[in-house]
Amino acid sequence: MDQATQLRQLAGAQEGTPGAAPKASPAAHKNRTCIVSVTSGKGGVGKTNIVANLAFLLAGMKKRTLIVDADCGLANIDLILGLTPKYNLYHVLKGEKTLAQTIINGPGGIKILPSSSGIQEMSTLSTIQKLALQDAMNTLSTRPDFMLIDTCAGISENVMYFNMVARETIIVVTPEPTSLTDAYALIKVLYQRHAKKRFKLLVNMVKTPLEAKEVFLRMAQATDHFLQLAIENLGYVVYDENLPSAVKQQKLLAELYPQSPSIKCLREIAKRLSQPTSEKTDDGVMSFFN
Ligand SMILES: Nc1ncnc2c1ncn2[C@@H]1O[C@H](COP(=O)(O)OP(=O)(O)O)[C@@H](O)[C@H]1O
Ligand SMILES: [Mg+2]
User: Fold this and answer.
1) 3-state SS class at 290
2) pLDDT band at 286, cuts 50/70/90?
3) Using a 6 Å cutoff on CB, does residue 45 contact ligand 1?
4) Residue-by-residue DSSP string for 151-210
């Protein structure tokens, strides 16, 4: 049995077992969460900055937004926001703290579930830990409209898991050739081994819209030719020197300078993401929620 099937079965078996969260009421079901993973083959392509600013923009559109920092090895969402959380995912998984005690408030009404830096056992979550996380998610009294998961780069077990629980997967690339080959490898593993079929490509740090288009076409041609898989074009974010300087100030660029070029691009992406979609959700996706 592959890992995805195993996890799906475990998630199903959890319902109705002692200690499992009570079934959500019909009213709670009305509030469906769109889980979006933001991931990449190569590190340093801009995932964390994209997640943080996108969350702020979605919150500005009156969408309840929760960031899950899933870069369990080297967490840094709180760092770029200048926050110092007391507890993190590690405490939740050990059963020491509830999600409500762990989630902190960020700018513009965003909520953040921080991760822990450098704790070895967090870099590969066990099946028990994954179930504990799912259980904890089901205790949330108000579900967010959007859950943005900032994953680590690469094709580790954790990356696979967090991409599997997400309905939408955003693959971040830059025009650098190594970022493209690594992203292709990630898509290939998620598609062939985990039956994930929906991928949205976001091209970051481009100089012109034409460059973004060329990068998207190169990737789309490769997945189409070698995997017979069509990927979606989510858009692009221009290279913006304001971004590194906002990071140095530990402030969000979307808050500091909402009209800066990269934030204008991200605003378009936020709009696109919040448009309702009628596509089926059962393409190898399990959810955090029962
Ligand atoms: N569009 C952009 N323009 C300029 N610099 C960027 C852009 N996106 C990201 N960066 C910079 O790239 C670096 C890596 O970004 P980060 O979000 O930490 O990447 P990742 O989470 O993928 O490792 C940071 O210094 C960030 O400020
Ligand atoms: Mg990061």
Assistant:
1) coil
2) low
3) yes
4) EEESS-HHHHHHHHS-SEEEEEE-SSHHHHHHHHHHHHHHHHTT-----EEEEEEESSHH
For ligand 1, whether the C-beta of 77 sits within 6 Å is: no
Ligand showing the shortest atom-to-Cα distance for residue 240: 1
**Residue in 37, 49, 206 to alter for ligand 1 test, most ligand atoms within 8 A of Cβ:** 49
C-alpha 50 – ligand 1 centre gap (Å): 8
> pLDDT tens digits for 90-112?
899 888 999 999 999 999 999 99
Distance 87 CA to ligand 1 centre (A): 26
Tokens found for residue 203: 């091209």
> Atom 24 (ligand 1): residue with closest C-alpha?
244
Pocket lining: 46 vs ligand 1, CB cutoff 6 Å: yes
CA 267 to chain centre: 17
User: Which residues lie across from 113 on neighbouring strands?
Assistant: 68
Residue carrying structure tokens 């402030």: 251
**Measured between alpha carbons, how far is residue 195 from residues 42, 91, 160 in Å?**
21, 31, 11
267 close to 57: Cβ distance less than 8 angstroms: yes
For residue 127, the model assigns a pLDDT of 87
Nearest to 166 by CA among 47, 13, 36: 36
Cβ–ligand 1 distance for 243 under 6 Å, the answer yes
Distances in whole angstroms, Cα of residue 267 to Cα of each of 2, 23, 158, 196, 235: 38, 36, 29, 26, 11
